[in-house]
């Protein structure tokens, strides 16, 4: 097992703005660290540099206590599963999984032991004789994971490994992968642009944008205390509401926005005149879309909540002061002063 660290790492492709721009971060030994960010923010590039598939323009990669920046991938005891994984089409599932073990000369009995272990963890037992073309996208992805697993790496680098699964399988695969990671304790860096996946799986999340880390923290820290408006609006569905007042943006989560009448005068709260426009019923909850001034805001309630206000008519709403967050309107950076 090993920690993984990048120090001031940069990747510049040609004359373009850097794909990765002086990122420093550490995945602790045994940690499940998620890299989350929009398409093109540099997640895959960062992971490829950690794995040794892409030489950094500058900066270092440290695994365990060793600087590995100039070592080839095979010298890094890392297993990778990428967005586009390649299985050998002419080999059976069994032989695909066995491939890295054969290559490293693992004794036959030990090979079979590990293959059976990985196959049972990933639910591939019944599929071992099939060829990749006889598998669904999700099954192929699990074979790629199994092939990474049998090498018993110190570090896993996973780049959207569940992206080909349908929603239902994805949820269960997420669960299995996380349980599996916890049980073997392999340091894992997991790339996704899916915030639900990031929140559910990560010990910590690093939120990236434009090749930089905007914030790194536990899912709760990132959700409750976003460092800037990018993070505030990237996480949460619907995202944090931002209402401009003077030079500040006043931010609050939809679940904290409720009729002023519900608020206890003993606990300070901030008032807003809210004009509800539209209601969305989502089974377990309802979302009320509307405006404060001319800014769009959303309120979230459990579906069973009784609400008495009518569409198009202003109603007094409030947010407990402890749930308010403030950001500089110009820079978007979080401000800890209460306006
Ligand atoms: N080989 C390359 N040559 C030139 N530019 C590249 C190369 N690889 C990536 N880039 C650019 O670097 C930036 C980051 O790309 P990267 O693939 O790391 O993004 P990503 O966060 O993984 O996005 P996605 O979520 O879409 O997979 C993008 O602007 C991309 O166009
Ligand atoms: Mg990518």
Q: What small molecules accompany the polymer chains?
A: adenosine-5'-triphosphate, magnesium ion
Q: Name the helix and strand elements from N-terminus to C-terminus, one letter apiece.
A: EEEHEEEHHHEHEHEEHHEEEEEEEEE
Mean pLDDT: 92
By secondary-structure content and strand pairing, the structural class works out as: alpha+beta
Instruction: Profile the largest sheet.
Output: 6 strands, mixed
Count of distinct strands: 19
Q: Strand order, main sheet: write it out.
A: 6-7-8-3-9-10
- Please give the radius of gyration in angstroms: 24 Å
State the separation between the terminal residues, measured CA to CA: 47 Å
Shape: globular
Q: Briefly, what CATH class of the largest domain?
A: Alpha Beta
Strand content: 25-35%
The helix content, as a percent range, equals: 10-25%
Number of discrete helical segments = 8
Q: Remind me, CATH topology of the largest domain?
A: Rossmann fold
CATH structural architecture of the largest domain: 3-Layer(aba) Sandwich
- Counting structural domains, the number is 2
CATH superfamily of the largest domain: P-loop containing nucleotide triphosphate hydrolases
């Amino acid at each position: 097992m090993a920690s993984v660290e990048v120090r001031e790492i940069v990747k510049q492709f040609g004359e373009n703005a850097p794909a990765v721009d002086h990122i420093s971060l550490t995945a602790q030994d045994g940690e499940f660290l998620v890299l989350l960010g929009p398409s093109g923010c540099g997640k895959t590039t960062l992971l490829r540099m950690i794995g040794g598939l892409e030489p950094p323009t500058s900066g270092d990669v440290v695994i365990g206590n060793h600087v590995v920046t100039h070592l080839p991938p095979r010298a890094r005891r890392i297993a990778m599963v990428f967005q586009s994984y390649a299985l050998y089409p002419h080999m059976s599932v069994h032989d695909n999984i066995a491939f890295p073990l054969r290559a490293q000369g693992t004794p036959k009995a030990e090979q079979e032991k590990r293959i059976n272990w990985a196959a049972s963890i990933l639910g591939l037992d019944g599929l071992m004789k099939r060829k990749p073309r006889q598998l669904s996208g999700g099954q192929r992805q699990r074979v790629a994971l199994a092939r990474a697993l049998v090498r018993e790496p110190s570090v896993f680098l996973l780049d959207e490994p569940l992206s080909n699964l349908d929603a239902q399988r994805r949820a269960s695969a997420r669960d299995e992968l996380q349980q599996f990671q916890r049980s073997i304790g392999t340091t894992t860096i997991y790339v996704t642009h899916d915030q639900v996946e990031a929140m559910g799986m990560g010990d910590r999340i690093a939120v990236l944008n434009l090749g930089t880390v905007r914030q790194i923290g536990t899912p709760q820290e990132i959700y409750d205390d976003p460092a800037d408006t990018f993070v505030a609006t990237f996480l949460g569905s619907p995202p944090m509401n931002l209402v401009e007042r003077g030079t500040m943006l006043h931010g609050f989560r939809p679940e904290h926005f409720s009729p002023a009448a519900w608020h206890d005068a003993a606990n300070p709260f901030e008032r807003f005149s809210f004009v509800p426009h539209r209601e969305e019923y989502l089974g377990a909850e309802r979302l009320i879309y509307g405006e404060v001034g001319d800014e769009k805001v959303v309120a979230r309630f459990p579906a069973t909540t009784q609400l008495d206000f009518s569409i198009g008519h202003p109603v007094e709403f409030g947010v407990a002061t402890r749930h308010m967050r403030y950001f500089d309107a110009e820079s978007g950076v979080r401000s800890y002063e209460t306006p």
